[in-house]
Amino acid sequence: MDLSLVIPVKEEEENLPELMKEIVDAITPTGKSFEVIVIDDGSRDRSWNVLLELAKQYDFLRLFRFQFNCGKADALSLGFSKARGELIATLDGDLQDDPREIPKMMKILDEGYDLVSGWKVRRHDPWHKTWPSKLFNLTVSAVCGKRLHDFNCGIKLYRASVVRFINLYGDFHRFIPVMAKWQGARVTEMPVTHRARVHGSSKYGVSRLVSGFLDLLTLLFLNKFATKPLHFFGLFGLLFFLFGGAVFGYFGFEWLKTGALHLRPLIVVGGFSLLMGIQLFSIGFLAELMSRNKEQRYPIAETVRDAVETDLEERV
After folding, report:
1. Is the dihedral of CA 84, 58, 79, 184 positive or negative?
2. Which SUPFAM superfamilies match (predicted)?
3. What is the mean pLDDT of the chain?
4. Per residue in 134-169, pLDDT tens?
5. What are the respective helix, strand and coil percentages of the chain, to the nearest 5?
6. How far apart are CA 154 and CA 135, in angstroms?
7. Residue 252 CB contacts under 8 Å (≥ 6 apart), including other chains
8. Angle formed by the axes of helices 207-225 and 230-258, to 10°?
9. d(CA 92, CA 7)
10. Which of 29, 93, 135, 282 has the most CB atoms less than 10 A away?
């Protein structure tokens, strides 16, 4: 298999038929063998029924369904684990991404890159989505050391080897280019066409800006301390411990010198510092134990195997 297209969808029943037609028109002329993996992320409309009908029409279509809304990161993670292509493309199911950009990305990938990320130069979104997105992209570029104009663009193309070792959960799908770069992948971007939404409504609001910055802090912490959390907690624990030890050492010296010891606020602060140091060391040790026993888990998913007739089972 040359190419796998991974598409998370949530309540996009009106967009799915047109999306499949566009994919066929865009990928078939390349002569590449391809599959389309669609993950229904707990839709409550007729998206799943529409997908089942499309699966009867298109033999390249493989369907998976979450029993409840798990989020885009979990949907992509499942799609990556099921993909069989040497190249893996992602795009959203709302028709705002143009599948005709994927062949262009393939040519850029042939120049020696491992990941090509889309850049929506001209976005057809309201200002309350575009301006927070620009601020977010600038912040991520400055903090992570990789300048991209649009980290969260839905359309991307990867070599399969890139996504095999990326652990996605929460909203970490926004940082795939960053995580890929940290693993040594060669990352670039390409301007892509962004189209206005015709059917349905956006599933994201302004609140994702706050969660995005919190996820960025989490990502930075995990990148540096995921395998050695004691180095983080132990550093602060050591500082508290040294300060508390210095305070008690000072008062101990005063007691030996004068034979008198008076309760002062500084003694309370020193005792608090010693306790904080002990607690931080304890948290660090517990985190070390947990990091040694972590495992990858995927949300429960129902595949098309459970929902349609036998002739479709071989495609899953």
Report:
1. positive
2. Nucleotide-diphospho-sugar transferases (SSF53448)
3. 82
4. 777 777 777 777 778 888 888 999 999 998 878 887
5. 50, 15, 35
6. 18
7. none
8. 80
9. 6
10. 93
Residue range 3-225 in CATH 3.40.50.620? no
Which tens digits make up the pLDDT trace of 87-118?
Answer: 999 999 888 889 999 999 999 999 999 999 99
pLDDT one-digit tens code per residue, 222-267: 777 777 888 888 888 889 989 988 988 888 887 787 777 666 788 8
> Where does the pLDDT of residue 315 fall: very low under 50, low under 70, confident under 90, or very high at 90 and above?
very low
Angstrom distance (rounded) from CA 293 to CA 280: 20
Q: Which two tokens stand for residue 216?
A: 């960025």
Select the highest-mean-pLDDT range: 24-38, 164-178, 293-307. 24-38
Query: What average pLDDT does this structure show over 172-196?
Result: 86
Region at 183 (left for phi over 0; alpha for psi -120 to 50; beta for the rest):
alpha
**Secondary structure letter of residue 174 according to DSSP:** G
Domain boundary assignment for the chain: 3-225, 230-291
**Cβ–Cβ under 8 Å, residues 54 and 153:** no
Residue type for 176, please? I
**CA distance readout (Å), 201 to 11, 188, 307:** 9, 30, 27
- Distance between CA 154 and CA 108 in Å, rounded? 17
Q: How far is CA 258 from CA 251, 266, 267, 271, in A?
A: 10, 18, 17, 21
Report the alpha-carbon distance of residue 272 to residue 178 in Å, rounded: 39
Q: Burial, 257: exposed, middle or buried (Cβ in 10 Å; 0-12, 13-18, 19+)?
A: exposed
Spatial strand order in the sheet of 87-90: 187-192, 115-120, 156-159, 87-90, 3-9, 34-41, 61-66, 301-303
